[in-house]
Amino acid sequence: MSIELITFLVMVAVFLLGCFLCKLPVSLSMVLSAVAGALVAGRGIPLRHLVEGMFSYVDTIMVIATAMIFMKVIQESGALDAVSCVIIEKFHKLPALMLCLIMIIVMFPGMITGSSTASVLSAGSIMAPVLMLMGVPMLETACILAMGGILGMIAPPTNLPAMVIGAGIDIPYSGFELPLALLTFPLAFVFVLMFGYKYVKKMDYAAVQAKLNNEPRKKFGFRVYIPLILAIVLMVLNKLVPAFSLGMPLIFLIAAAVGCFTGYKFNVLKMAKESVNSVLPVMGILMGVGMFIQIMTLTGVRGLIVTACLSLPELGRYVAMSVSMPLFGAVSSFGSASVLGVPFLLSFLAKKEIIVAAALSLIASLGDMMPPTALAGIFAAQVVGMEKYTPVLKKCLLPCLMVIIWGVLFIVFANELAPYILFT
Length: 424
Hints:
By secondary structure, this protein is mostly helical. It has helices spanning about 5-20, 25-40, 45-55, 60-75, 80-90, 95-115, 115-135, 140-155, 160-170, 175-200, 205-210, 215-220, 225-240, 250-260, 270-300, 300-310, 315-330, 335-345, 355-365, 375-385, 390-395, 395-410, 415-420.
């Protein structure tokens, strides 16, 4: 048995012991596993590499923090309630279209923060009562929130697993928008219709309308929507105009600052503190992932995994990818993206790497539905008032299988799709 394999087994063992036996946070377990790997490989405690790894994803961490502040601003100002009311009022006679638009609202926090938890706990907590008022049962509502959170995490403009995978082989996060949109939105619309359409088409609109929060629209009018419109305009300009390069963190901060004056008044400092606190676990995981990957690279473990992936036959790679990435993602979808996503991407270098990286990020995202952590599923169950998460997992098994198949198809036909969906 090679020293690289021994090191890898020790790192995994320490990681699992930290998470499940000692009940430590995922981020701290990753730090301890990185230190253990370095010690077993005879590298001592390489502080320089640990610090360097910790800052590997500092740009991504800045995006998460500022995006969550923006998300909290539009929630506190009343913009999210206003958008929800408009959609239901304008489209209640078209239940299929209304459900699709509600799904976009559920996904939206994940789209800008890269966190499924942000989707479920913010927009999900607002839309869950509305869905249940429409007649959607508690279980189906939880499934909509869980799958919406996962797909929102992968949808553009912010996809953290894709950023992590791209950073592993120095692919800039550019040109991912259309592939990610095609990977996520069709599935999202299928799932929300699968779970909710037969109930919503019998909806009593008068009863639902009485429970909606219309006050922000009546009190502030059009100005309550300005932060959302501004953020979208700045994002578009950031992509289309090369000279206009603000960066995502600054865009979110500008839109958040404007949002402080367009709706309800709130304590800005308190709100910012709560926003950052709510995503600290995600940012901590990214720091731990960076250390973990840095030590894997230093000790040769990463090369071992890459070699193992490259040595698999093509069919074996698809099977291994479909099984291992969601299961490893049970601990951390970001960890799955970095530890397994990068080697699998390298094994498919004959295909268009942006499409492959996007599809791998989709498959890795299913880790947020896998027990024991199952962040998206557990929080979705809690939001709707369910005591146990298990029924949500059972109900979402078919959608999860559809996600894997959809992602694999994009990888298989990556070169054929590239001329139509890549513009870089």
